[in-house]
Amino acid sequence: MKKILHTLFQPYPYKHSQEKLLKQTAFIFLVIFLFLFLFSPFNVNESELKYNYSIICLIHALNGAVIYLIFFTLYNKLARPVDNEENWTGIKAILLIAIFLLMIGFGSFLLRPVLYTTANNFSWHYFFQETFNTFLAGTLVSAFFILLNYRRLLKENQDSLADLEKKMESNEIIEDKNVPGKVSKPVSVIIENEVLELNPDEFIFAKSDGNYVTFYFNKKATIVKLLKRISLKSVEEQIDENALYFIKTHRAYLVNIKHITKMTGNAQGYQLFFEMIDFPVPVSRALLPRFKQVMEGK
């Protein structure tokens, strides 16, 4: 039990980003329909149905899909979880799904007069029945698949990292050697009316926060932070594509791989560690292939 609880509080990818929402909505519709149609999980009395059971399943599936689309569209706009995905965990994913399932249960309760001939459809009995059934079945299934997916992603990323470390040991990693077509000279970034030089020997990484970027430097064994009004995208655009050490690893981070001291794998991707920095920098799953290419000197 302790192991499961520990797993639930580990980093986990956020699965409901806006660009995936329509596909996820279609998937939710299909899953709910097939689950209800194939398993009839809640002992439905067909004599109480106003329509054929397959139509009832379709309506319940549509209810779930519409609530999913509205709920997560609003959540993405208000909470902006993608901007802080490194803080997303398995337990947060389960709690969010639980809230969503309660809303489905409430929606199913409101649909009862439309679907069933039962007397007193708007009663506390049916309210608790609809919400509890949906919440219990959905939460247990969701928790199971989240734990299963966590183990799969963790193993996948740890194996990938182990392969990368083998290449580091065999000197396939670029380290300090010269790579044809690459340069390791300082990069100049224009910020409003000033020029900021990113020297590969000093610049560690840049962290974005809205319209501001914090630049971290190691100057004579001292961490120096500079906060500048500029977007990370603008910084990235000004960096020479042949720059040897600089790469974007996450929507909020651009790092200098020369200063990486340690790497670990988790369900979200990799985590990078730097000397005298007390927090890890994430490598998102979307940017992982490019990061590995750069680390391998490709």
Describe this structure in words.
- With 298 residues, this protein is an alpha+beta fold.
- The strands form three sheets. It has a five-stranded antiparallel β-sheet. The chain has a three-stranded antiparallel β-sheet with strand order 8-9-10.
- The model is unreliable at 171-183 (pLDDT under 50).
- It contains seven helices and ten strands.
- The chain is elongated and about 80 Å long.
- Helix 2 (21-39) runs antiparallel to helix 3 and helix 3 packs across helix 4.
- The protein has two domains: 2-165, no CATH class; 173-295, OB fold (Dihydrolipoamide Acetyltransferase, E2P), CATH 2.40.50.1020.
- The chain has helices at 2-8, 21-39, 53-79, 90-115, 124-169, 232-238, 288-295; strands spanning 187-191, 194-198, 203-209, 212-218, 223-229, 246-250, 253-256, 260-266, 269-274, 281-284.
- Helices cover 47% and strands 19% of the residues.
- It starts with a helix and ends with a helix.
Write the layout of secondary structure elements.
Layout: H1 2-8, H2 21-39, H3 53-79, H4 90-115, H5 124-169, E1 187-191, E2 194-198, E3 203-209, E4 212-218, E5 223-229, H6 232-238, E6 246-250, E7 253-256, E8 260-266, E9 269-274, E10 281-284, H7 288-295
Antiparallel strand pairs: 1-2, 3-4, 3-7, 4-5, 6-7, 8-9, 9-10
Helix pairs in contact: 2-3, 3-4, 4-5
For this entry, give a set of tags.
2 domains, OB fold (Dihydrolipoamide Acetyltransferase, E2P), five-stranded antiparallel beta sheet, alpha+beta, single chain, three-stranded antiparallel beta sheet
